[in-house]
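Internal tracking record. Fields below are filled automatically when a chain is submitted to the structure queue. Please do not edit lines marked as system-generated. If the sequence contains nonstandard residues, flag them in the REMARKS field before resubmitting.
Queue: standard
Priority: normal
Entity type: single polypeptide chain
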Amino acid sequence: MPASRSERRLKGAVSRILVIDDEPDIRELIDLTLTRMGLESDSVGTVAEARECLESSSYQLCLTDMRLPDGDGLEIVRYVADNFGETPVAVITAFGSAENAVAALKAGAFDYLAKPVGLEQLRALVKSALKLPTAELRVDSAQSLRGESAAIQQVRGMIDKLARSQAPVYVSGESGSGKELAARLVHGQSARANAPFVPVNCGAIPETLMESEFFGYRKGAFTGADSERDGFFQAASGGTLFLDEVADLPLAMQVKLLRAIQEKRVRKVGSTTEEPVDVRIICATHRNLRECVDKGSFRQDLYYRLNVIELHMPPLRECSEDIPVLVETILDRLGVSTRFSANALKSLERYPFPGNVRELENILERATALCSGTVIEPEDLQLSVEESPEELVGRGSETLDDYLNRLEKQAVLEALQKTGNNRTAAARLLGVTFRSLRYRLERLGIE
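SYSTEM-GENERATED OUTPUT FOLLOWS
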């Protein structure tokens, strides 16, 4: 029986790559490149031959063309995913065929290369694929993303799958729901785990500085550029670039970001040449990106490039059964011996948490500071909205969205009243960012 991938690594065996392409010249080029990298390879020209090889040998990576005489590359991707889940598959697509690349990534492909195949990109892809951690070496996402609700278990399963791909990921969810944590977990379990994770808040960068911040600049490119500097793309080389609040990017910058993602190359401000970059893009926003596209504030082509796979982070109110374990985790992190009474936990489980987990953390910090004993009671929580289960039913024609919006509006108004309409202080009290509060004020129609 062929050695497993992990067994080959432990024994120091040379990795073997399966190359599937019906053009002999391309097979020869790839074989030669892999040989010079110290790797072994088998080359075939059809789907049927590929299946035979996969059944008889163990491979650490498959490289397949999209168009084959007896099928296409997507068949290989699905076949390997179903039968050899530990083996990554990269597809080779025709130049400019973005649709094929996106379809392959959604089907579970590790990554893609565009024809004509660039040897530098080929080598980078192969090295990255061979760094993928095996199942026994992978970090368990449950260690960081606590909870056993169905929604959280689904998120953890999705993170495990996304970690074995290079596909761009769009993390959606409300403010404070853990979008950056999810992005860090995807990065930390991926082949890029040892490379940088670079988080960028797109809403915090002045529009005039965006291009130089993202792509870097050459010395003398503009007044004050007295030395050459790398941008976010270069800083994240080999790793992951996390674009938080990506919906805040102006349209002009969206065009440049789209090109950088498509071509995998960037041009520094003041430079006449482009340089290759190897980064994985994960983006997030609390807004509905689809609605931004419909309103014309976000480019549709960039949306489809970024939203190859969506990872939705559920709001805390949909995971109320996880609150006890989250409370225990946060209290342990705070290093306090204070514990919650049963009534206090019930109060938390009834609370709608407009600020989600971030708000829970702030509530616990405040409660531990205000609690005079060793047990936190409901009054120590100072929750703005508390309702019994009986009050949650019998609301007539009011929809769930209307009910939650009403609770959220009440919480925001109470916070503004307590802080004398100081929005910064109100945001801090609610456990949300100032930008998030401003968005909520606009959405809820609060002057």
